[in-house]
Amino acid sequence: MARVLHRSAVYLAGLQKRLELPACEGANYPDAYLEFLRTVVYLRTFGISEETVRDLWILEKKLMMLLHVDTATKSRTWFLDACGRKTNRKQRLLLSNFDLGIPLNAREIQTGLDFSDRLPELFEGEAMGEDALRVLDDCLQLEKMMLRDVREELAQVRDATKWAAHLPK
Question: Is the pTM here over 0.85, yes or no?
C-alpha cells in the first residue's frame, strides 16, 4: 500500500490508527481499503486537513450505522467495502462511497431502512436522539465545504505539477 500510495508505511499506519481502521495481516488488504486510503491521500494533497477528513469519516460511519448497514454484512471492513465503485457517483458518500440509493441532493432518505437481520431496537433511533436526516445533512455540509476547497486548490495543484515536471532529475 505504501508503494502504491507514495506514502511511508509509518504514515499509513498512523492514518489507520487515527481513522480507527482495522489492520489486516500482511498485505491482505481488500482493494476497497486501498481505494479509501487513496481518497484520503488525495484529499490531503488538496490541503483538506486530516481533522476534517476524520470528522466526515465519523459522520459517514454514524449514518451507515443508523441505516443498519453495519450488520448487513459480516465483513470487518463493511464501512469501506463500497470504495472504488464507479456507478451512481451522485448517490455515494465521499469517503465510504456508500450508495444511499438516491441522489445526495434529493434531501430525503428512507430512515426506516434496515439492512440487517438483527432484532429491532426497543426505541427508534430518533427517540434516542439519533436522526439519520440530521447526520446526512451534517455529512453533506462538510462534504460541500471539502469539495469547494478542492476545486479552489485544483488550479494550484495543476500549476505545481507542470512546474515540477521541469525540475532536474
Answer: no
